[in-house]
Design a protein that fits this description.
The chain is α/β, with parallel strands linked by helices. Helix content is about 35%, strand content about 30%. It is built from two helices and seven strands; from the N terminus they run αβββββββα. Strands 1-2-6-7-5-4-3 form a seven-stranded mixed beta sheet, with no helix packed on it. Helix 1 packs antiparallel against helix 2. The longest helix is centred in the N-terminal third of the chain and has 38 residues.
């Protein structure tokens, strides 16, 4: 009969402790994300803000109403998007110059079934600030440019909150590791 392996037991205990810690951390992240999403939901009822020249990546003003005066369209990009009726197609995003200096603004000018850039020289655009993968924020126009249809407005439902699932996953890993270790230890002690 062999004894309890001390070093292996310590390693398994550390691994299980780490997994439990990660599960608890994900529960805290889930609570944080719910609060963040509630803040974003409440943004729709708040007054419009000035479009930030340099957005704070740590606290972006997502889902706030704003406006931008596009002095000049510097570039276009088309990305997959949906119309306000849920149709798949292309969202047309203009990179706009907003002053003589600075980074400018990204404006979702509208939606179409074709990726070709629309004709637009610039102007004032009202809309809602949304997340942008390349520039932190972009303004989704409330009214599309001529020749385009309205893009799907930004929604908090597009922001995943899967921390609870991750927490359950870590707790399951810890439980499975404990069961496997218990079975292995039992077989070792029975020999």
């Amino acid at each position: 009969m062999k004894g309890i392996p001390i070093i292996v037991s310590i390693i398994v205990a550390i691994a299980i402790g780490t997994m439990v810690y990660l599960g608890i951390w994900q529960l805290q992240r889930a609570e944080w994300k719910e609060g963040l999403l509630a803040t974003y939901e409440a943004a729709a009822d708040q007054p419009a803000i000035t479009y930030p020249a340099v957005p704070d990546a740590a606290e972006p003003p997502y889902f706030r109403r704003s406006s931008v005066n596009c002095l000049e369209v510097l570039d276009w990009r088309s990305t997959s998007g949906r119309s306000d009726k849920g149709q798949s197609g292309w969202a047309h995003i203009a990179t706009c110059k907003t002053s003589s200096e600075g980074p400018g603004a990204q404006i979702v000018a509208g939606w179409s079934t074709k990726p070709e850039d629309p004709e637009w020289a610039g102007g004032k655009v009202d809309g809602i600030i949304a997340p942008d993968t390349q520039n932190v924020i972009r303004l989704v126009a409330s009214e599309p440019l001529a020749g385009l249809q309205r893009s799907q407005p930004p929604s908090t439902h597009d922001i995943p909150n899967n921390h609870m699932a991750y927490a359950v996953q870590w707790f399951l890993f810890a439980g499975i590791a404990l069961i496997i270790f218990g079975l292995a230890l039992r077989m070792r002690l029975q020999k």
